[in-house]
Design goal:
Blueprint (H helix, E strand, L loop, with lengths): L1 E7 L3 H12 L4 E4 L4 H6 L5 E2 L1 H9 L4 H6 L1 E3 L1 E6 L2 E6 H5 L3 E3 L2 H11 L4 E2 L3 E6 L7 E5 L5 E11 L17 E16 L9 E3 L6 E7 L2 E8 L10 H12 L13 E15 L2 E2 L2 E3 L5 E2 L7 H20 L5 H28 L5 H16 L1 H12 L6
Parallel strand pairs: 1-2, 1-11, 2-8, 5-13, 11-18
Antiparallel strand pairs: 3-7, 4-7, 5-6, 9-10, 10-11, 12-15, 12-16, 13-14, 14-15, 16-19, 17-18
The chain binds 8-demethyl-8-dimethylamino-flavin-adenine-dinucleotide (RFL) and P-hydroxybenzoic acid (PHB).
Length: 388
């Protein structure tokens, strides 16, 4: 098999890249280890920043997003006895949309036209630093396949082989782990809030998010290594109610049937550069952020918007300035989001250190009372314009 762009991974980064390339008349083939159903059902991110909404809309992927997604003007930040609304639209002129990654994935699958080879095994990258890069893999019938391409896009997330295809001396890895995880639940109950609530609490952070008018998504800070099965539904709702301030100023948290419960660890990770020869990394393959800033999916979308534009210039217009600048341009946004995600995470998660708690509360008071502080948070959360 031969194609112009071999894409590894059919998550949001890989499928969106392939879709954008197809719109520019560029062929690609996507290979994916999982089944189409598995990829589409993974419960992950829920917030699309302003530029991501614009990009998906301009790529013809906005119909359901605008019909079924919900525009939010801002978020609530709270700590015991206090709840403050930050209005991103007033502060920056930009809003965000609540629209689950599962929905984005469905829209991408529905719109996608080129070949996607699902359920492959043993994906390997070869000769990425030459002008004959290629992949080998075994298809679901057990047949060994070879895919030759002009370039390879590594969109294979945090466990894929692409990032390790950049050899040691060329790559640098920056990493931070955090001493806590999130217990996340999905529940068949109307959200108890109109917009997301990020809550600082001495017993740990809590977040009230949502997927639709009938489905809520909530998170609790828990110790690393927590087994979700050890949290009963009642205990989970009780802890959420306490940390989210049930009863405070008459606000109540309505519990409901929990349909999914899982624990996710918190990690910051960046690998540089995002290009090695004819291999380009995008999305979680190159960087991971803790979810507190709601940036993971948005960064993946921003990377591939940039990469699709740069590959189009290279392959159709025969100009290399954009592709030569890809890694540096993408990393500027990656580091901005890495900092913002680290900052939100460290501002909102409880530790045993009373000094840190006072600093966190001071910071929260500042971002909720100073226009300058609020605007900084709003600008980062609603997202910066795409560099394309
Ligand atoms: P994905 O979505 O992980 O897709 C990568 C795809 O590559 C496939 N793959 C391979 N394919 C072929 N050959 C191989 N050898 C392969 N190895 C892997 C995988 O099966 C997969 O389909 O990465 P992408 O496209 O870069 O998209 C990034 C986003 O998915 C990610 O940043 C966010 O979902 C992160 N994230 C969250 N972000 C938020 O903003 N808010 C959240 O609430 C949130 N929750 C989460 C998350 C990530 C999670 N992960 C990765 C475990 C919750 C979880 C559980
Ligand atoms: C979610 O809805 O899953 C979500 C929203 C905001 C975050 C993290 C997760 O910061």
């Amino acid at each position: 098999m031969r194609t112009e762009v071999a894409v590894i991974g059919a998550g949001p980064a890989g499928l969106l890249l392939s879709h954008l390339l197809a719109r520019a008349g560029i062929d690609s083939v996507v290979v994916e280890t999982r089944s189409q159903e598995y990829v589409a059902s993974r419960i992950r991110a829920g917030i699309l920043e302003h530029a991501a909404v614009d990009l998906l809309t301009s790529a013809g992927l906005g119909d359901r997003l605008h019909a079924e997604g919900h525009e939010h003007r801002g978020v609530y930040l709270q700590w015991p006895e206090e709840r403050h609304h930050l209005d991103f639209l007033d502060l920056t002129g930009r809003s965000v949309h609540v629209y689950g990654q599962t929905e984005v994935q469905k829209d991408l699958v529905a719109a996608h036209q080129g070949p996607v080879v699902y359920e492959v095994t043993d994906t390997r990258l070869h000769d990425v630093h030459t002008d004959q890069p290629h992949l080998t893999f075994v298809d679901r019938d057990g047949v060994h396949q070879r895919l030759d391409a002009t370039v390879i896009a590594g969109c294979d997330g945090s466990f894929g082989p692409s990032r390790a295809a950049v050899p040691e001396p060329a790559r640098r890895v920056f990493e931070r782990t955090y001493p806590y995880s999130w217990l996340g639940i999905l529940a068949d109950v109307a959200p108890s809030t109109d917009e997301l609530i990020y809550a600082w609490h001495p017993d740990g952070f809590a977040l009230h998010s949502m997927r639709s008018p009938t489905v809520s998504r909530l998170y609790l800070q828990v110790p690393n290594g927590t087994d979700p099965a050890r949290w009963s539904d009642q205990q989970t709702w009780d802890e959420l109610a306490k940390r989210l301030g049930h009863g405070q100023d008459g606000w109540t948290l309505t519990p409901g049937p929990i349909t999914d419960k899982s624990v996710l660890p918190m990690r910051s990770f960046v690998q540089t550069p995002m290009r090695y020869g004819n291999l380009f990394l995008a999305g979680d393959a190159a960087h991971i952020v803790p979810p507190t800033g709601a940036k993971g999916l948005n960064l993946a979308i921003a990377d591939v918007a940039l990469l699709a534009r740069a590959l189009t210039a290279q392959l159709r217009e025969h100009t290399t300035a954009l592709i030569d600048a890809y890694s540096e341009t993408a990393l500027r946004r990656v580091w901005r989001c890495t900092h913002f995600s680290w900052w939100m995470t460290t501002m909102l998660h409880a530790s045993d250190d009373p000094f840190e708690a006072e600093l966190q509360l001071s910071q929260l008071r500042w971002v909720t009372s100073s226009t300058a502080g609020a605007t900084g948070l709003a600008e980062n959360y609603a997202g910066l314009p795409l560099a394309v």
